[in-house]
Specification:
Blueprint lengths: L3 H20 L12 H5 L2 H24 L6 H15 L1 H10 L4 H29 L4 H6 L3 H18 L5 H20 L4 H6 L7
């Protein structure tokens, strides 16, 4: 089975996720910049963070399937598993924002990020298993230090929010800082697949 239908469906779902998130932003009641702060406030920043994450997944998803010639039923289900966790981004983003970065919503957002990352790694593993240990994709992934580092940052963010005591707000902000750090880590272009597969036929 070719990858075109899976990619088109996934692109559509991610576009809808971004649309839902932007619809959560409230229109200011006034007509000057001063009216923007109370209406949008931190909402724009939490939207930006989740937008970046969806963009990162879209980018990596595209490169991953450049290196995938055919897909199996297992890959289809693994992809749906990933899309399920990504589809929760609008909910956990809005909850975290509307709570003012309270402990439980920040933890929920971090667990959402962690679950999506694990789902992506599982999908990657299913594809590699189907293509064999000597495939170009397996060589491109290597030890996948970036993937493992991001999991550690998500866990650190969740634990930071959970450990907050008398200064809970500070710990919640620290937790979000770990999530931002993971996003910045992935904003640096990842050329592994392009270097290993870019010159092969069928990767345009």
């Amino acid at each position: 089975m070719r990858t075109s239908r899976l990619e088109a469906f996934s692109d559509g779902v991610m576009a809808i996720i971004i649309t839902i998130m932007v619809l959560e932003l409230k229109v200011p009641e006034g007509h000057d910049l001063a009216a923007l702060t109370p209406a949008v406030g931190s909402s724009l920043l939490t939207y930006l963070l989740s937008f970046v994450y969806v963009g990162i997944y879209w980018n990596n998803h595209h490169h991953l399937f450049q290196a995938t010639e055919t897909i199996s039923g297992g890959v289809l289900w693994a992809n749906l598993h990933l899309l399920f966790w990504l589809s929760l981004f609008p909910f956990t983003t809005a909850w975290m924002d509307e709570s003012g970065l309270a402990q439980t919503p920040v933890v929920a957002y971090g667990l959402n990020l962690l679950a999506a990352a694990i789902a992506y790694l599982l999908m990657q593993a299913v594809i590699i298993r189907g293509q064999g240990p000597d495939s170009a994709l397996r060589r491109a992934m290597g030890r996948d230090i970036k993937g493992k580092s991001s999991l550690a940052l998500y866990l650190a963010g969740v634990l930071s929010a959970l450990l907050g005591g008398a200064h809970q707000a500070v710990w919640s902000y620290l937790g979000v800082a770990f999530f931002v750090a993971a996003a910045i880590l992935w904003l640096v272009p990842d050329r592994r697949i392009e270097r290993n597969i870019g010159a092969e036929p069928g990767t345009d």
